[in-house]
Amino acid sequence: MARTGFTSQAEADAAKTKPLQLADSAYYQPPQALSPAFDYPVEYIRQDLEDKYTTRVAQTGLSVYSTINVAAQRKAYEVVRNGLRWYDKSHTGWRSSYQMIPTAANNGAGPPTPQELASYKYPDWYRNGYVPGRYLMGLVTKVDQARDEATVRFGNYIATVNGGDMGWGKRAPRNEFKPGYLAEFIIKDVDKKTRRLKVELNQIPNVQGAMMTENAKSGEVVAMVGGYDFLTNKFNNAVQAYRQTGSAFKPFIYTAAIEWGMTPDTMVSGAPISINGWQPHNYNGSTSNGDLPLKTALAQSMNIPAVHLLQTVGIQTGAQMVRRFGIKVPMAPYLPSALGATEVPLDQMVSAYSAFPNKGIRVEPHLIRKVVDRDGAVMEEWEKTTYKVVSEYVALTMVSMMRGVVEGGTASAASSLGVPLAGKTGTVNDHTDVWFLGYTPTYVTGVWMGYPGRKKPLGNDMTGAHGALPMFIEFTKDFLKDKPKEDFPQAPSMPEDMKEMYKQRQRELALERAQMTVDEEENKTDQNTTPGTITTPRLEDSTLPPPKSNEPPPPRTEAPKSEPPPQTAPPPAQTRPRETEPAKKKGKKGDDGPPG
Question: With a threshold of 0.85, does the pTM exceed it?
């Protein structure tokens, strides 16, 4: 540098006298985030670029411009981790579960040698500063049995942990720790001069969670958190975890009903259902409820009306609607799908919900705006891709119904934010997964929580409103504080073609109710049939008006051959023709039959 004039000879000579020292960050291999809050989106982007450009990602120095909002990502990371810690502390006990560093001793069981302890480097030690409130993994290097304390190393910092620093587990260090254990601690105080820390032990939760926020108008992913900690679990639950969605799936079925010709005030049946041993029930355990308007059934997340809706519009129609929303997983072709039996990752659910506030238009989600090579040439730039899912009337009608979920339904706690919100909670059978997806006129945020891998109940008190919704509220409160308050547009009037469709649907429903009444009256006259409390509804899809010319003659007017001629009394039940045979109608979609 001195020879070429970039520095003076005196400065060059002075620099030569200083010892060489590697920066702490040199231990941390790129391309990785400089903060743990960005690990999941950075890895997602890296994998995407590596698929496109292979080794050029690491060798050619690409500049990548992301859609991630720094402040929003940090807040989402903090909220998810706090929510998982809260659940772990309130629903599980202290597990004394720690990870042993790699060692050659006893086939990896330890204890590690002093050289292995001294040379071990945890990636998180060499990024960001050591500040109070930060959670950090520490390596136990020594346990003093006599003094009941442990020495823990955090990179170039040391901490001494005694009984008062053992967190809510309140265990003794000499019984809890072994040299070579990695454990999570929260930093309480930092002395940079002596490079010593004051820390408190924390337990890494077994449960996992994910959060994702997307701009519904542009498709830009603003925040993505795929789990508690990327370095302990690189599985991204936001995009890789296919989980049952529970009642969060219901808006797709209700959308099909609105497009089918129903309105928020259309009454939907709450009659009990029993099909081949499958009997759905509402959250409170009831197997039936009174007829309810669509908007009330959705706000209160009633299960039986949702199944009736899917029966009415047809399984095939419901599956097609789910596909139109961008859900890549085909809807399972049976009635329990109305209650969220289909497994869908969080990112697809967030993208699907973005069509509601965006007037029926879904914009393809993305994390990369632009990629530039080392010479400044643009290698790729995002081009907006949109999909028309439903009409503006249908989308905004659904928004008005989903606002009822927040304004007096299962997610009423979200009304404390004081901004216009809509959304839907979701709780899976046995409380194994909890969801909440909510949106403003611009942003959609989804939250999921559950045990990874094999499903395990979270607890009977854990619902979408109790487990996922608090994280949504905590994040949204901070995220929207500097943004202008927006309100949802009003739904336009029903289009003329839908009005005609609505009248047709009303005629169909009236005919179906009349037929059910006739069936009930006939059943009362059957000698071998006792009226039950559960009715098995017809599974044929009523997507077209019933044909008039092909109706068979009523069975009651046909005298059986084995009976003497002209009798005024109805024929015996065992010889009366089966009702199911003539009731089948051709030209209808999706005669799927009962679930398996």
Answer: no
